[in-house]
Amino acid sequence: MSDEEKLLTEDKDHVQIREELSQMSFEDLQKLKDKLGTKIYKETLFGKKEVIKRQFKRENKNRPREMSAKIPVSGLREVVKVKKVVTRDPRFDSMCGTFNEKAFKRSYGFISKLRENDLSTLKKELTQATDPRVIKKIKYLIQRVENQLREEKRLKKKEGKQQQEKKELMESIKRGEKPVFKKKSEKKVLDLISQYEELKETGKLKKHIKRLRKKNIHKDRAKLKISEME
């Protein structure tokens, strides 16, 4: 049987089915549709739809490719591949090695000298300045640099004490004596004594005591307010 004969027989079958269905009631048709399903019901009535797939081919390889309008284009399309830049933080990267505090201080020890030079230049600028805003800014910078230098000296002094303690312990071990380790409370008392002596030498002891008194008064007032509220 040829293709034309097949098509004719299929058309005849569809015509017969349509004639039979036309004699049925709407209720029976609905029951038949529910039983067969919408897809099969439509295929029996109208036949299968042939979907023609269009092939997008280029006549020449140098021509641009024709794309279907039904396929959505992605918003983030990578046209040109760009190498991803990976940022590294040397503080947390194992490839950069471990932090050596002694080596760091040895390499950047010149910063303290630069700060001292900055302090002297700022003091000169303060004597020459006339604008109150500029004077205020210079005073703030002087205070900041002085605090940084003071903190550096304090840390150096602390490190010197620690090294001295280690040296004394090593000497006592060499002599065959039992090493005596200081408690935190003892260290705290010694630090307070050294701080007291330093303030006394610089003449800032009275000022320091006044500041501590004010701090304690504020604390007491805050406690009283909380107790009154309760």
Radius of gyration: 46 Å
Q: How many strands?
A: 0
The helix-and-strand class reads mainly alpha
Topology order in helix (H) and strand (E) letters: HHHHHHHH
Largest sheet: none
| Through-space gap between termini | 104 Å
The total domain count is 3
- The helix tally amounts to 8
Short description:
Associates with 90S and pre-40S pre-ribosomal particles. The chain is mainly alpha-helical and 230 residues long.
Q: What are the main properties of this structure?
A:
230 residues; mainly alpha; 67% helix; 0% strand; disordered N terminus; rRNA processing; nucleus
Care to describe what's here?
The chain is mainly α. It has 8 helices and no strands.
Question: What's the helix and strand layout?
Answer:
Blueprint: H1 3-22, H2 26-36, H3 38-46, H4 101-107, H5 110-128, H6 132-174, H7 184-202, H8 205-229
Helix pairs in contact: 2-3, 5-6
Protein name: rRNA biogenesis protein RRP36
Function: Component of the 90S pre-ribosome involved in the maturation of rRNAs. Required for early cleavages of the pre-RNAs in the 40S ribosomal subunit maturation pathway.
Family: Belongs to the RRP36 family.
